[in-house]
Amino acid sequence: MANQHGDFIWYELLTKDAAASARFYGAVLGWKDRPAEGSDNGYRIFGIDGTDVAGFMSLPAGAEAAGMRPCWLGYIAVRDVDTIVADIVRAGGVQHTPPTDIPGVGRFAMLADPQGVVFYVMRGAIDATSTAFEQTRPGHCHWNELSTSDQGAALAFYAGLFGWQKGDAMPMGAMGDYQFIVHRGQAIGAMMNRMENAPPPAWTFYFGVEDIDAAARAVSANGGAVCHGPAEVPGGIHIIVASDPQGAMFGLVGPRRASP
């Protein structure tokens, strides 16, 4: 695996309707979908321009009854899955899925941080570099944003386990700082305190688009909902935060090509 410890290497949608999700994200992001080779659980792959960028599957049996809802989850590369899982549990995290091998793909585990935010860790089986996170390419993830109930504790948790560092910060009034996180010299996302009455703590992943207004219209036209934006952010680009037709939250980021 060419990716380094602490890199985001994959994104995964858990949904109540895989076929509808394929249609929605195809319309919004131009993604094509195909079955994952060798999968026996209906796992499918989203790709764009011949490059795989994410996966999706139906919520596992019993997950919804246990309180899990459609959502996007991220995979973080690690040197050794078993070692990091033990470290995460010692640091106050929770193991949801034990270290498990996927033949030909790698070893992974599903966990939650001390504030209850779910994520995966993974060690890939092949010597290849994932470009699922690639800030220069439309259709790829451009930003990883954590909304948390305890920003200081979350920063310490992820930094201690994955080597992330604090970057610049933008004051957000009573909410505190929007704290950029840096990995291997690159700003890969940010952490912020969860707003009162907002959804539970979670990661939100922002996928790149070529025209934010066209993308926002596509979300609404295909059964999704724009919850915030388009709003300008530093760098002269715009974002929206949206939910897909099954309620999974995600973000889009890109330029405004013309006046709305």
TrEMBL record:
Task: Please state every residue range assigned to the domain named VOC.
Answer: 7-124, 137-255
Q: Which PROSITE patterns match?
A: VOC (PS51819)
Taxonomically, which superkingdom? Bacteria
Q: Which InterPro entries does the record associate with it?
A: Anthracycline_SecMetBiosynth (IPR052164), Glyas_Bleomycin-R_OHBP_Dase (IPR029068), Glyas_Fos-R_dOase_dom (IPR004360), VOC_core (IPR037523)
UniProt protein name:
VOC family protein
Species name: Microvirga makkahensis
